Amino acid sequence: MLADSAARHSLDELRARAATHHYTTDTVLECMPFIDIEVMKEMLPKILELTKSPQLGTKIACTHLLVLAAHYLRSDLEPIAGKIMTTLLNGTFDRNPTVRKNYAEALGQVSAHAKPQSVEKLMRKLVNLYETKEDDSTRSSVALTLKAVAKAKIEHIKDNEGILAPLVYLAMHAPKDNESNAVEIYEEIWTDISPGRETGIRTHLAAIREEIEKALISNSWTKKIQAAEAIKSICSGLSSGVGAEREPLLRSLLAAVHGKTFDGKRHLVEAIAALCEVKDGEVVAPALLTECVDALVAEARKHEPAYKRHAVRALGAALAHSRCQRFRQVYDIVKPILAKNELSMEKDSDTEDRESGRERREQLRELKEAAYDLLASAWPEDADTQENYQEVYFEHCSQSYPCSSRSTQLAILSSMSRVLDRLVVLAGGPKDPEHVAAERAVRALTHHVAAVVDYTLKNSNQVRHRRDALQLMETLIKRLKNLNKGDELKKLHDIYQTYAQDLSKDSSYELRSKIDSIKVYFR
């Protein structure tokens, strides 16, 4: 089918080229210097009638004539330009891509000599067509038309940027299609509207927000995804923050994310997480952030594995930005995930093929990585909650580490390192009221961390694994030194001594440097 479509398109392009170089077309070209606006007005009804012909050659010849008329008549064409543009606009939505392209190019040339009111009317019509029709051909036609107008007279785009900017910004975040370059065209038009990306977003932010809200309340999942992508782009593109538009955007997202899971819904939860990141100087109502976290907690409980992974990651990002305390809920979400062994997963049935089993293992691996990241992001600040979970957490990590895949091991190392930095028990001293319990807790977590580090340095030849394990050990050594924990330090020193000689000769500069930095603590 794709081959037939490509062949047909190539053939139509050849036919279009032949039509513009036909001897009758050449004759028309010779006559053009003698055609004034009055003659053009007389010919126009017949020309516009011929543009509706079912014959491709006739359509292309008519558009070629109109381009020539725009070239020769220029400003004299103004009184009839609006009428011509209306007819050509209909042709830009023809089923044939060659016809659409030629009509769009002709429309652009004619628009260069049209009244400002006619151009504004055209722009509003294009915006309305994009918003009301969801097919790819319509969106491509709108892009081709805007590109042709910009090529013929860029001032028309700049003069109507207030109308175009919201649509163009949303349109350039649509999914890219290998068969169409519409998204790239919208990106070019956005550059024409606003050479400075952040300045353009800031200038038109209120209008862009309204356009995004329309997309989020639509029944189209594609539009919702597109809107979410635009929101993420706004968050990353504005260095000073989203400001007053944050709350309405979040309200719209929270309404859109509610309900069943659909393909691409992950973009919505990612957009919520992005909006939870508050820049310096911004003020966001804590109640609003709480609503966002509540929504993400609900989404993280969904069962579909691929979506659940993105929801879990989004929840982790939102918790890291908002500092909301939800560890108990988080633990309930990740506990069944982490209880599964990805390396020993059995096939659900004898009929399950090998590829399906591999896919399930891959999904579980990605989900577990997200879960470890979430645990670190959600780690509680409250000392009592930490006390309830810290030993369970570190024991699980040390037991799961050997039977995890390489990428999951990296996630475990990263999670443990982040949790160590936030442990209250490693920030206290011997005068703590719960001194005996704290001693036991420090001893236990040192045992588990040492087991993970020792296993990594003994069994892994991966530079990144060894580097992260050494970083984990260094983090714990610093804390133990501050607490004067001699027995625990000796345990880590023994591990260091076992591997230091070989690591100091390793080809990796990172490992040699890390060994040298740890050595300082044992002097």
Give me the secondary-structure topology.
Elements lengths: L1 H19 L2 H9 L5 H14 L5 H18 L4 H14 L5 H15 L4 H17 L3 H17 L1 H6 L1 H11 L10 H12 L3 H7 L1 H13 L3 H17 L8 H12 L8 H10 L10 H15 L4 H18 L4 H12 L15 H25 L4 H18 L5 H15 L14 H25 L3 H21 L2 H18 L5 H11 L4
Helix pairs in contact: 1-4, 3-4, 4-6, 5-6, 6-8, 7-8, 8-11, 10-11, 10-13, 13-14, 13-15, 14-16, 15-16, 15-17, 16-18, 17-18, 18-20, 19-20, 20-22, 21-23, 22-24, 23-24, 23-25, 24-25, 24-26
Characterize the structure shown.
The chain has 523 residues and is an all-alpha fold. It has a domain at 382-523. The chain contains 26 helices and no strands. The longest helix is centred in the last third of the chain and has 25 residues, at 354-378. The model has no long low-confidence stretch (mean pLDDT 89).
Write a concise synopsis of the structure shown.
It is built from 26 helices and no strands. It is mainly alpha-helical and 523 residues long.
Strand content: under 5%
**SS summary, helix count:** 26
Mean pLDDT: 89
Global Rg: 32 Å
Shape: elongated
Biggest beta sheet summary: none
* Poorly predicted ranges: none
Distance between the termini: 73 Å
Helix and strand sequence: HHHHHHHHHHHHHHHHHHHHHHHHHH
Range of helix content: over 70%
- Structural class, please? mainly alpha
Total DSSP E strands: 0
Keywords summarizing the entry:
523 residues, mainly alpha, 26 helices, 0% strand, elongated
